[in-house]
Inverse folding.
């Protein structure tokens, strides 16, 4: 997101000063978070790291020990580099002791052999930084918008993974806790190379945290799960230099949230309906709510109770899961109630081996016996 020292040196205002790198060339790819002009020797105490420090040297120590301490303080705080304009304190070049100290600490040291207004340099660099931040903000906004749309649409895991790979520009894999691949997108790479021996390869990817980058393996990983129950990992292969950008971590986490939410929605779609009916039937049975309120809530569910009958069925399970019988019966009404409006979804309560299952029916009084017979037949046959 931030420009590097190398990129800053290439800007027109800096090139006007005829820059020359005299030490720390290996650190020219350090990001420049900000530019700070200073003429005091204890400036390091005011910095946070990542700054490119500009100075003419007029306030720097005259003795070698003081110069070494100045460079050491800057290196310790993590500055991106030091730019010294010649002509005021140092005429032809910076002191050798400064060059040696900077080289020893791997800190870029740049001479400007021609007078250059520092304000032009700071304006140019800060414009780059602000533009980069705006670009990052727009990219993050697009990420949230895309995955919000996928969440609302109830997109399948394969669609979410595909979108993540398209936005990241790199392969993305969704695996479960058994290291089995649930979905993947190669982003143009070879699927065979990506998935060959995946289980063994996945076990070697051990990030430190829920979302972290394993530099040895080259994968950015985030955990997928919700409500305290993790069920998989989402991985993106990063082929760039250094750690992946923050935007990629945000993208992967947002994709993981969409996957977790989608799984909850699919799992709870039927359960939520049953939960609502269970609450309504419990109120009817326990008389915990006024009748008018129960009728009003039932009407809101699309089940008017006015001049209708409620049929209660007690089912004793014989070696079957308590949930299996009600679920089977829930599909019965399509073909069974020939003279009745379609009954609504069931609700039940489980107590020991007995399930209380009630169905809200639009049947007239004469149809109750017919419905009861049909329910009994369905329960006996175990069909839905």
């Amino acid at each position: 997101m931030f420009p590097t020292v190398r990129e800053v040196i290439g800007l027109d205002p800096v090139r006007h000063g005829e820059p020359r790198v005299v030490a720390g060339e290996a650190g020219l790819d350090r990001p420049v978070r900000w530019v700070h002009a200073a003429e005091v020797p204890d400036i390091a105490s005011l910095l946070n790291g990542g700054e490119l420090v500009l100075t003419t040297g007029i306030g720097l120590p005259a003795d070698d020990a003081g110069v070494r301490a100045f460079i050491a303080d800057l290196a310790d705080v993590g500055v991106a580099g030091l730019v010294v304009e010649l002509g005021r304190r140092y005429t032809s070049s910076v002191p050798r002791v400064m060059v040696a100290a900077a080289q020893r600490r791997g800190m870029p040291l740049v001479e400007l052999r021609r007078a250059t207004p520092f304000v032009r340099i700071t304006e140019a660099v800060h414009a780059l930084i602000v533009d980069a931040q705006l670009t990052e903000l727009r990219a993050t906004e697009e990420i949230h918008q895309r995955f919000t749309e996928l969440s609302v649409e109830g997109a399948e895991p394969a669609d979410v993974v595909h979108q993540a790979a398209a936005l990241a520009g790199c392969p993305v894999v969704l695996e479960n806790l058994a290291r089995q691949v649930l979905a993947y997108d190669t982003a143009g790479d070879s699927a065979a190379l990506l998935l060959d021996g995946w289980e063994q390869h996945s076990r070697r990817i051990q990030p430190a945290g829920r979302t972290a980058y394993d530099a040895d393996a080259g994968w950015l990983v985030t955990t997928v799960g919700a409500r305290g129950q993790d069920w998989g990992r989402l991985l993106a292969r990063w082929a760039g230099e250094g750690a992946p950008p923050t935007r990629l971590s945000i993208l992967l986490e947002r994709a993981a949230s969409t996957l977790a939410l989608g799984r909850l929605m699919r799992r709870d779609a039927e359960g939520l309906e049953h939960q609502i009916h269970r609450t309504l039937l419990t109120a009817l049975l326990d008389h915990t709510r006024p009748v008018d309120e129960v009728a009003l809530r039932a009407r809101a569910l699309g089940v008017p109770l006015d001049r209708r009958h409620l049929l209660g069925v007690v089912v004793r399970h014989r070696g079957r899961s308590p949930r299996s019988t009600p679920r089977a019966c829930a599909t019965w009404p399509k073909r069974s109630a020939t003279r009745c409006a379609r009954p609504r979804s069931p609700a039940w309560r489980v107590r020991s081996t007995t399930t209380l299952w009630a169905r809200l029916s639009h049947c007239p009084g004469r149809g109750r016996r017919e419905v009861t017979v049909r329910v009994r037949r369905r329960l006996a046959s175990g069909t839905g």
In short: The two ends are 58 Å apart (CA to CA).
